[in-house]
Amino acid sequence: MWLELTDVSRSFGNRTLFQGVDLRVSAGDRIGLVGPNGAGKTTLLKIASGDEAPDAGRRQTPRDGRVGMLRQEIDPHPTHTVMEETLTATAALGALEDELRQLETTMAESGEVDPGVAERYDALHDRFVREDGFSREASAERVLEGLGFDAESRTRPLTEFSGGWLMRVELAKLLLAEPDVLLLDEPTNHLDLPSIQWFEETLQAFRGGVVVISHDRTFLRRHTNRIAELAHGRFTVYPCGYDKYLDQREQRQLELLAQKKSQDKQIAETEKFIERFRAKASKARQVQSRVKALDKIERIDVDEPATRRMRLRIPEPKRAGAVPVSLEGIHKAYDDNVVYAGVDLLVKRGERLALAGPNGAGKTTLLRILAGALPFDRGERRLGHQVEIGYFAQHQLEDLDPARSVFSELESIATHDDIPRLRGHLGAFLFTGDDIQKRVSVLSGGEKARLALAKMLLRPKNVLVLDEPTNHLDVEACQVLEDALRAYIGTVVFISHDRAFINALATRVVEVKNGTLREFLGNYDAYVDATAPSPPKPRPTVAKEATTAPAPAAAPKAPTSKAEKARERERKKSRDRITRKIEKIEASILERETQGEALGWKLGDPNVYKDADRVREIEGERTAIQEAIAADYREWERLAAELEVLDGDAG
User: Fold this and answer.
1) Is the four-CA dihedral 332, 337, 343, 346 of positive or negative sign?
2) Which of 88, 126, 283, 419 could form a disulfide with 277 if both were Cys (CB 3.0 to 4.6 A apart)?
3) DSSP string of 23-46, one letter each residue
4) Of 133, 149, 259, whose CA–CA distance to 198 is shortest?
5) Distance between CA atoms of residues 239 and 229, nearest Å
């Protein structure tokens, strides 16, 4: 056992965050700490690290146990480079190396070996070797490279980096320190997808215990063997992975609801008896007996699963043109740093397009240009018919007025017609009851993100451009937003490092890398499969008895006569014509499949079935689209066969 919390409690003023928390962390444990924003998860992690003291209970670690925590608040050293700051994690090894150098200098200057000095040197040298002191800098470079720092950036001062990159430096220090227990607060929040993959591989090799707060469901599924839920002041540990936890929690909730229903019925009957016979002397003993029994009952308290039952509905927008937004020949540079030198991007109506690629590749720049929030140097940005864009950026959290209440912040952008529905709209974003009177200044990061989303979605927009919309949301809120966007019939272009979110939404992935764009149909898993390095091809087996190499295949003969050259030109023209037709059909299939999927989501709404004519209309549209897709596929197969014949004639 490397870390133990026993009966730990913590309150703020009159509010009890949690009480009676018991948790043991041993080598190999992978504990996911989950619960709604504001439940006290980060506070509990700080108590576990020893940074804060509990109001009650105790924290224990072995005398030689080391607990390391990834902190969200970072004060960068003004003079340190990235490499220098990272090496502070192994400062003890650095001090050891300095002492070894001093002893070497002492022995060299004296000209003779003092037995005491030699013994000290040997002991320090053995310890330095045992703790991999000679690979100290190489290990730091390997970790920093995995987290996205190239050789040049490692030599730059910390003051030149944003908070997200400083978080990476803190993570590098934590991994290099190799503590017995890792306490991680949203470790993937500021990592791009390649860095998340590297971090996961590193974490798999870590032998100690891990407690992690994360809203990344893919991360939780892959890297937890226990789930600790902190919600409504109660702490419950589920001895299973994330998916089983969801099932067990739901089953536990159903059981508690059934027990509460039975208990409520028993209490109601008892109270009815007391009220009925309170004034009768002949029933006095029985009444008193029931009053005492009622006082002794331990009431079953069941938390309302509001986030699970809530279904956020994004208002249905106007129908936009077939191509809501497109970019052509876009050039963009920041001083000498050329981000794009003539890229094209076409966004089709109804699709959900995810931008992927490493940090610094220009994803956010491209997203801002699409949204019209960033000017570009050259090229053209076109908007389709009736296009209205809603843009969500991370800085919008900072633009919220801290002095306003949640309600007044939303009211500040509302029209007169919006006022009656503001409370219901906030309720859809989990602001209910007294929550709407909270000051923005006291909101958590997740609550601010929900408020910013609520402002953006107050009125219908037919194109949503979203930059990391799940970054500060808890798991439940991520699921709610995901469900809402899946049912949304408009167009979505987004950046996210949440792989479950991308998989659930994306119909196309555009990879942004080295100033170029590559597109892949499908979701994130399809993109990963398409970009995964191909396995090496097996070498052909050569029979032992063979004595001569097989003759190389004959190369196709180049056309020689004028007639042959003319036929070859005609063949190339036909091939280009057919290829263009095939590409056009593929684009048509994609658009129609997207339209069909949107209609399918409409049929998934129970409210639609209140209008039988509307249901028949939607089903008729779906049938027509499916027939058109089938016709497209038949034409595609015919053209592909023609192309095959042409390629065969060329051979």
Assistant:
1) negative
2) 283
3) EEE-TT-EEEEE--TTSSHHHHHH
4) 149
5) 11
CA distances 455 to 163, 399, 412, 413, 442, Å, are 25, 12, 9, 8, 18
Instruction: Give dist(CA 199, CA 426) in Å, integer.
Output: 37
Considering only the C-alpha atoms of the chain, give the largest distance between any 2 of them, rounded to a whole number of Å.
124
For residue 77, how many other CB atoms are within 10 A of its CB? 12
pLDDT at position 549 over 50: no
290's CB contacts (< 8 A; 6+ apart) are: 270, 273, 274
410: exposed, middle or buried (C-beta count within 10 Å: 0-12, 13-18, 19+)? buried
**Nearest-angstrom CA–CA distance, 339 and 359:** 12
d(CA 490, CA 356): 21
The first and second tokens of residue 501, run together, are 């979110």
β-strands 3-12, 56-60: how paired? antiparallel
Q: Is 45 left (phi over 0), alpha (psi -120 to 50) or beta?
A: alpha
Sorted by sequence, the CB contacts under 8 Å of residue 571 that are 6+ apart come out as 646, 649, 650
Q: Give dist(CA 235, CA 7) in Å, integer.
A: 10
Could you read off the pLDDT of 473-490 as tens digits, one per residue? 878 788 888 888 988 999
* Structure token pair of residue 304: 């309302």
Q: Which amino acid is at 49?
A: S
CA 397, 398, 403, 408 torsion-angle sign: negative
Token pair for residue 269?
A: 């009957």
Question: For 452-506, where are the E strands, in sequence order?
Answer: 463-467, 491-495
User: Is the model's pLDDT at 33 over the cut of 90?
Assistant: yes
Q: Report residue 639 as tokens.
A: 């053209």
Task: Please give the sequence-ordered ranges of beta strands (E in DSSP) within 372-457, or none if there are none.
Answer: 378-383, 389-392
Name the helix (H) or strand (E) containing 332. strand 325-334
Q: What are phi and psi of 366, to 5 degrees?
A: -65, -40
Q: What is the CA radius of gyration of the chain?
A: 32
CA of residue 322 relative to chain centroid, distance = 30
Give the tens place of pLDDT for each residue, 335-367.
888 999 999 999 999 999 999 988 778 999 999
Residue 222 to residues 226, 505, 527: CA-CA distances in angstroms?
11, 20, 19
Closest CA to 392 of 481, 465, 313, 472: 465
**Rounded Cα distance, 192 and 173, in Å:** 18
Mean pLDDT of the chain: 83
Between CA 36 and CA 477 the distance in angstroms is 8
Q: Which two tokens stand for residue 527?
A: 């993109």
Distance CA 4, CA 332 (A): 53
Using left for φ > 0, alpha for ψ between -120 and 50, and beta otherwise, residue 598 falls in: alpha
- Contact between 224 and 206 (Cβ < 8 Å): no
Rounded Cα gap, residues 527 and 521, in angstroms: 8
Q: Can you tell me which residue has the tokens 């069941």? A: 302
Report how many helices (DSSP H) and strands (DSSP E) the chain contains, helices first.
20, 18
Contact yes or no for 11/207 (Cβ under 8 A): no
The alpha carbon torsion through 206, 212, 218, 224 (nearest 10 deg) reads: 60
